[in-house]
From TrEMBL:
Enzyme class label: hydrolase
Name by which UniProt lists this protein: alpha-L-fucosidase
InterPro entries per record: FA58C, Galactose-bd-like_sf, GH, GH29D-like_dom, Glyco_hydro_29, Glyco_hydro_29_N
Boundaries of every F5/8 type C domain copy: 512-676
Enzyme Commission code: 3.2.1.51
Superkingdom of the source species: Bacteria
UniProt keyword terms in alphabetical order: Glycosidase, Hydrolase, Signal
Length: 677
């Protein structure tokens, strides 16, 4: 064939409709959103005045003198974030209390007037330099609500806010995300006015003009708020997106801080008008700011892994917060936890088992869109089918029987989010069998299921807004987390042990020996004993560390007027005693030689007992004091307290609180007794 003929064939092929890309399904992401989506995982740093006032929301009357980290090192934050696999960090430049971390020309309420670095410090600058050194993108959290500023609520404050944003967005290089918080609680110091100021959140901030300012100064920055415009809040602070999560949002119906946002809008909507993907934010501890009393509440590896699967695995980005401590460092426990997560995720998704498989499809649109594209690790290339073939499928043949327990699928979002329902199946002797199913996919969807063995698997796309357009598919075999089982006990005394991963077995013992009994059903316990338990991976024979619990008589027949929550075996609930006496009837007489007190474990604790007296009685009328003392470090470390005394038989007990840490009425999550000396 001569050159002209070749050219003609080429042109004809190129014009064939089946090799043109599909029409996008609107809405579609902007370039800025496409870039951002690939980051997936980045961190939050909550460090500001609240770190020193030990609050979550400062009132605005704090003195800059209070801000004084002893050992601040932003490079430590950046190192940890980068080692954990994060791609950026966002810092609270100004929180609701109004204190700012840089020497702003527009306020005295800043690091300039603090003792830190003799008032010459610029924390945003140190933060930016540290992030750049570790290859992290830089983001800014800026609270529109300001409980310090005298003009808050007036138009002048909006000018102040824009002036400060201009400083932040001009002086510190590229910013990848600007985070506008929707919270506004009303009352505040407001320059000494000490009053409640309500603003109309819809109109007061004139968001359109503020957004334009950010666009002008930082065209690539993503704008975050409940309402976007670029990225939206996921509607909760657990870090969980939804089984069905659309990146599409009826953006014009939403504004930051609106009351019904979480229930009504946070999942996104199938036919939403704008592309505004979800971001899941969560703190590695209960609070956003550091409180020493939460040192024992850093999220465990299984909790963090759950967050990963429920955020990144559900078409959302993940923003995990570090409450930097008063030294100005990420606490050792938080570091350990986040690095363990990074390592676990890296291991789980290290090897795509489909890499070696043969892939085929129910249909292909043409040469550029073959099924092979879902395995090439290039997000830009994708598999799709001729128009109209909504119910398409992909089949993978491993050649040999293979074990797997995770499915990862990605849609090519520049052409819009499409899939509404899909199923993963394996071929067995009885034909195709369902393993798992999902609704939306979006940028990334991960399904978890217990170990499956198969030679052939297929994904069927059952329903969608249009034909599926799939960038990548992966099957993985994640190793179960070898963590000790989770322990819970009922009031009846029944003990449950739940493995951290469904493919693990649990073994236990009640007599102090090595755990060797296979756990199958809840265990009734009604005496003082030591429970030892561990999880075992039946395939490798490897065991987790051990869980040890000192148990005692059950609380089944215990009663207490109005204080049921202190004897319900639920550490999450609590009772408040007023007057400060917790009195309990044990139902019958026991030889008592001690008691336990678990302080309130809820998010905002109050009424920890600091000074106590413990009394016992045979008839509920004549009381005898058997112990008296102090729970010394309970404010900072509210863990289970155990007190021993000389053995005494008694049916009634009372814990008398003589002083609480904060002067509030005494609270108790649980009260228990010890019957063995
Ligand atoms: C919320 C704030 O009120 C919290 O203090 C925290 O900053 C969190 C990320 O956003 O709305």
């Amino acid at each position: 064939m001569n050159r002209h003929l070749w050219l003609l064939v080429f042109v004809l092929l190129a014009c064939k409709p089946d090799i043109s890309p599909p029409e996008p399904v609107l809405p579609i992401p902007s370039e800025r959103q496409i870039e951002w989506q690939r980051l997936e995982y980045y961190g939050f740093v909550h460090f500001n005045m609240n770190t020193f006032s030990d609050r979550e929301w400062g009132f605005g009357d704090e003195s800059p003198e209070q801000f004084n980290p002893t050992d601040l090192d932003a490079r430590q934050w950046a190192r940890i974030a980068s080692e954990a696999g994060m791609k950026g960090l966002i810092i609270t430049a100004k929180h609701h209390d109004g204190f700012v971390l840089w020497p702003s020309a527009y306020t005295e309420h800043s690091v300039n007037n603090s003792p830190w670095r003799d008032g010459k410090g610029d924390l945003i600058q140190e933060f930016v330099e540290a992030c750049r050194e570790y290859g992290l993108k830089v983001g800014i959290y800026y609270s529109p609500w300001d409980r310090n500023h005298p003009d808050y609520g007036k138009p002048e404050y909006i000018t102040y806010m824009r002036n400060q944003l201009s400083e932040l967005l001009t002086n510190y290089g590229d910013i990848f995300e600007v985070w506008f918080d929707g919270a506004n609680g009303g009352d505040g110091w407001y320059g000494g006015a000490n009053e409640t100021r309500k603003v109309d959140k819809f109109s007061y901030y004139d968001w359109h003009t503020t957004h334009q300012l950010v666009r002008d100064l930082q065209p690539n920055a993503m704008l975050f708020s409940d309402a976007g415009p670029d990225v939206r809040w996921v509607g909760n602070e657990h870090g969980f997106a939804y089984e069905t999560t659309w990146s599409n949002l009826y953006r014009d119906s939403v504004y930051a801080g609106m009351p019904e946002y979480s229930e009504k809008w946070a999942t996104g909507q199938e036919n939403g008008s704008h592309w505004v993907p979800a971001e899941s934010d969560v703190s590695i501890r209960p609070g956003w700011y550091y409180h020493a009393y939460e040192d024992h509440k850093v999220k465990t590896l299984d909790q963090l892994v759950e967050i990963y699967y429920k955020s990144i695995g559900r078409n959302s980005s993940l923003l995990i917060n570090f409450p930097v401590d008063r030294r100005g460092l990420i606490h050792e426990k938080d570091e350990e936890a986040i690095l363990a997560l990074g390592k676990k995720i890296e291991q789980d998704f290290e090897f795509n088992l489909l890499g070696e498989s043969e892939v085929s499809a129910s249909g292909e649109r043409g040469r550029s869109f073959t099924a092979q594209n879902v395995l090439d690790e290039e997000y830009e290339s994708y598999w799709t089918v001729p128009d109209g073939e909504h119910k398409a499928s992909l089949t993978f043949d491993f050649g040999i029987e293979t074990t797997f327990n995770r499915l990862l699928v990605q849609e090519f979002t520049p052409l819009g989010q499409r899939v509404k329902s899909f199923v993963l199946e394996k071929e067995s002797e009885e034909g195709w069998q369902k393993i798992a199913e999902g609704t939306t996919i979006g940028y990334k969807r991960i399904l978890q299921f217990s170990d499956q063995k198969a030679r052939k698997v297929r994904i069927r796309f059952l329903d969608g807004k249009d034909i599926p357009v799939i960038s990548e598919v992966g099957l993985y075999h994640a190793t179960p987390m070898l963590l000790p089982p989770k322990f819970t006990r009922e009031k009846s005394g029944l003990v449950r042990l739940v493995p951290a991963d469904r493919d693990l077995q649990v073994y236990y013992s009640l007599d102090g020996s090595e755990p060797s009994i296979l756990y199958e059903n809840p265990i009734p316990v009604n005496s003082a004993l030591t429970l030892r338990a561990l999880s075992k991976n039946p395939k490798t024979g490897k065991s987790s560390e051990e869980l040890r619990e000192q148990l005692d008589i059950s609380k089944e027949n215990w009663s207490s007027e109005n204080l049921q929550q202190a004897i319900d075996e639920n550490p999450g609930s609590y009772a408040t005693a007023d007057p400060n006496i917790f009195q309990i009837d044990l139902g019958e007489s026991y030889p008592l030689s001690g008691f336990t007190y678990l302080p309130m474990q809820a998010r905002y604790p109050s009424g920890f007992i600091q000074k106590y007296e413990f009394e016992v009685s045979a008839d509920g009328e004549n009381w005898q004091a058997v112990a008296k003392g102090e729970f010394s470090n309970i404010a900072n470390n509210p863990i289970l307290q155990e007190v021993r005394f000389e053995a005494k038989p008694a049916r009634y007990i009372r814990l008398i609180s003589q002083q609480t840490t904060d002067g509030n009425a005494s609270t108790a999550a649980e009260i228990g007794v010890l019957t063995k000396e």
